[in-house]
Amino acid sequence: MDDEESYEEVSASAGIAAAMAERGNPLHTRYVNRAIRGVLQNISEDGRVRNVSGGTAVMKDKEGYRAIPRRWIQGWGQGLALAFFSAVLVSEENEKDGAL
Fold it and tell me: N or C: which end of the chain has fewer CB within 10 A?
């Protein structure tokens, strides 16, 4: 989170934003909207969610995290992005107020 040289990992953002959208707290609306834009920017034309790291263990340093591959499709990244967009759609359907 404090390493400006690292890429922004998408799956955690999608998971946290899914919980926010599902909860429906109006104070979270701006964060959910930012997450919509951020996650969409990391979906390729063929539907792959990019910038999802491989599995991580506790590392000794930042370089250890930076070396984790992200070139393969990771199921948890795809699933968390789907959960997020599903939560957004459900919350919009339930509230019908256009907040999200």
Answer: N
Q: How far is CA 41 from CA 23, 37, 73, in A?
A: 24, 6, 16
Identity of the amino acid at 7: Y
CA distance 62 to 95: 42
The residue type found at 93 is E
Which pTM was predicted?
Answer: 0.78
The β-bridge partners of 43 are 49
Under DSSP, the state recorded for 97 is S
The pLDDT tens digits for 26-78 are 899 999 999 999 999 999 999 999 988 877 778 788 888 777 777 777 788 89
Tell me the sheet residues that pair with 49.
Answer: 43
